[in-house]
């Protein structure tokens, strides 16, 4: 099941490049719109899958969210950890800027 989620995540992160052409032959259009800086967003949830080699993390919040992340951000993250991810969306992909483990608060009885 875990392998399925990782494979599914890879399909979203690395879509097939069917019919890709060289940028030298494709005319590039310029836009007069100023480029807007991506706004940082926050998501939190439980880690469902981590692939450090591919740089992918899948969390379950309200929905299942797939993020790309640098390998250094993923090295301390494990499945079932509760995390807070700050990310930006670039070309429809969620790119994690920081990942923090939520503190595990213990209550006394």
Structure notes:
This protein is α+β, with helices and mostly antiparallel strands. The protein has a domain at 2-13 and 39-101: OB fold (Dihydrolipoamide Acetyltransferase, E2P) (Beta Barrel), CATH 2.40.50. The chain is 15% helix and 36% strand. The chain has helices at 2-13, 71-74; strands spanning 41-51, 56-60, 64-68, 82-90, 93-101. It has a five-stranded mixed beta barrel. The protein is globular and about 50 Å long.
Write the layout of secondary structure elements.
Blueprint: H1 2-13, E1 41-51, E2 56-60, E3 64-68, H2 71-74, E4 82-90, E5 93-101
Parallel strand pairs: 3-5
Antiparallel strand pairs: 1-2, 1-4, 2-3, 4-5
Overall helicity: 10-25%
Strand order of the largest sheet: 1-2-3-5-4
Give me the Rg, rounded: 17 Å
Q: How many strand segments? A: 5
Any idea of the CATH topology of the domain at 2-13 and 39-101?
OB fold (Dihydrolipoamide Acetyltransferase, E2P)
How would you briefly describe this protein structure?
With 109 residues, this protein is of the alpha+beta class. It has helices at 2-13, 71-74; strands at 41-51, 56-60, 64-68, 82-90, 93-101.
What brief labels describe this structure?
alpha+beta, 5 strands, OB fold (Dihydrolipoamide Acetyltransferase, E2P), single chain, 109 residues, globular, 36% strand
